[in-house]
Design a protein that fits this description.
The chain contains four helices and 27 strands. The protein is an alpha+beta fold and 420 residues long. The strands form seven sheets. A five-stranded mixed beta sheet has the order 2-9-8-4-5, with no helix packed on it. Strands 11-19-20-23-22 form a five-stranded mixed beta sheet, with no helix packed on it. A four-stranded antiparallel beta sheet has the order 1-3-7-6, with no helix packed on it. Strand 4 and strand 5 form a beta hairpin. The radius of gyration is 59 Å and the shape is elongated. The chain starts with a helix and ends with a strand.
Length: 420
């Protein structure tokens, strides 16, 4: 008598039921041993995607392979699917493998699946299906919308409804921040993770992004970002618009106060430290204008800017120099208009050099004159000779010498003088 394929399947099922029914008590547990020829793999799958279960036999002697769900219901017996769930589809069937796919996986599909091989004794191998559920888009909340510099802010990041629980990291300007994490398991075996981070802010943190990064096996590149909104007091700087150089008597002075802050400074004040403003001083917004400077205006002028966070100031030291009487000698070294000692020092050095040069020239001229005069007198120096006593050396006595002397009283008319 010929047996059809469906008849063969029915006979195999009957034989399997009879063999289990006549096993001694406790023998069913002994059958759930690790299969010598049977192998399978655990599967992790993201919810909504497809899982594949493979039951593999190394050396099959025409034994029947079947796949059971966690409730031990037969999904596939050989290449036949008794279970009425169309999500299970046969991928491959042969003497050495039964491969089945499960589409649109949900959390209810998670559990232990059984591969059975009808040998004597039967063999089983287990494939655990783990369903991964990625968290929803993370959310960052701040304790306050804006924070002032020097204060502490707190950010909270939440990753909801994931499986397994997600992990959260914080990053700010390339550096990782340490947060406090709490994990809550919900009724449907899902997890909600919350992380809080606290840190102090400075004005340099204004506009800086803070990242909440979610790490989860079912998600990649999942993060939330928040830019810091930091309030800070003004930064003040005084700029000299005029003059471009030394401030001298009779000149005009024009100063501009530059102030930046968050919020933007709305109040700008000009004042003279410890003294009253000059009568010619005019304040227009950020500018201070003083005309016809004189030395009584010397002092420190201050620009004060303020906002809701605080106030700050910058100082300008005014020193008025004498009006120039000569064209100043060009110099390659700039003069510090803020330092009175530097302004006075430069003209003094120039005057001393000029005076020293003049004195040197005069002394040199005097020395040259003395040398010329000396040489002149040396050339015209001579000896004065007369002939009145000529022959006196040969006389025997004084009277004779007088008588014999040429040019005596008898020769007075012939007296001659010679200059050599």
């Amino acid at each position: 008598m010929a047996i059809t394929g469906s008849g063969s399947l029915a006979i195999s099922l009957v034989l399997f039921v009879i063999s289990v029914a006549f096993l001694p008590k406790g023998a069913a547990e002994t059958l759930t041993v690790e299969g010598q020829n049977l192998a399978t793999d655990n599967v992790s799958v993201i919810e909504g995607e497809t899982a594949t279960i493979s039951c593999r036999v190394k050396d099959n002697d025409d034994s029947v392979i079947q796949l059971l769900n966690p409730n031990r219901q037969t999904i596939y017996f050989r290449d036949v699917r008794p279970l009425k769930d169309s999500r299970f589809q046969l991928v491959n069937f042969s003497d050495n493998e039964l491969r089945v796919s499960l589409s649109n996986v949900s959390l209810s599909d998670e559990g232990r699946y059984v591969c059975q091989l009808y040998t004597d004794p039967p063999q089983e191998a287990y494939a655990d299906i783990t369903v991964l559920v990625p968290p929803g888009n993370p959310m960052i909340e701040s304790r306050e919308e804006m924070v002032s510099e020097g204060n502490e802010t707190e950010l909270t990041c939440t990753a909801m409804s994931s499986k397994p629980a997600a992990s959260i990291r914080w990053m700010k300007k390339g550096e990782e921040l340490t947060g406090e994490t709490t994990v809550e398991e919900t009724y449907d075996r899902m997890f909600t993770v919350t992380s809080r981070v606290r840190f102090s802010v400075t004005k340099e943190d204004d506009g800086v992004p803070v990242d909440c990064i979610i790490d989860h096996p079912a998600a990649k590149d999942l993060l939330a970002q928040r830019h810091l909104d930091v309030l800070y007091k003004p930064e003040v700087k005084i700029v000299v618009a005029y003059p471009n150089g030394l401030t001298r008597e009779g000149d005009n002075l024009d100063l501009t106060c530059i102030a930046e802050g968050k919020p933007h400074p709305r109040r700008i004040i000009w004042l003279r430290v410890d003294e009253d403003m000059p009568p010619h001083a005019v304040v227009t917004g950020h500018d201070l204008y003083i005309e016809n400077l004189n030395k009584s205006y010397n002092g420190t002028y201050r620009c004060v800017a303020s906002n809701a966070v605080g106030e700050a100031y910058d100082d300008y030291a005014l020193y008025v120099y004498d009006a120039p009487t000569t064209i100043p000698t060009p110099t390659t070294n700039p003069v510090n208009t803020q330092d009175p000692r530097a302004g006075e020092g430069a003209p003094q050095k120039i005057d001393h050099a000029v005076i020293g040069g003049v004195v040197a020239v005069v002394m040199f001229a005097i020395l040259c004159a003395l040398i010329v005069l000396g040489r002149y007198f040396a050339r015209h120096k001579g000896t004065y000779f007369t002939h009145e006593a000529k022959g006196a050396d040969d006389a025997a006595d004084a009277d004779t010498a007088i008588i014999n002397a040429e040019g005596g009283h008898n020769n007075t008319d012939e007296k001659k003088e010679y200059y050599i």
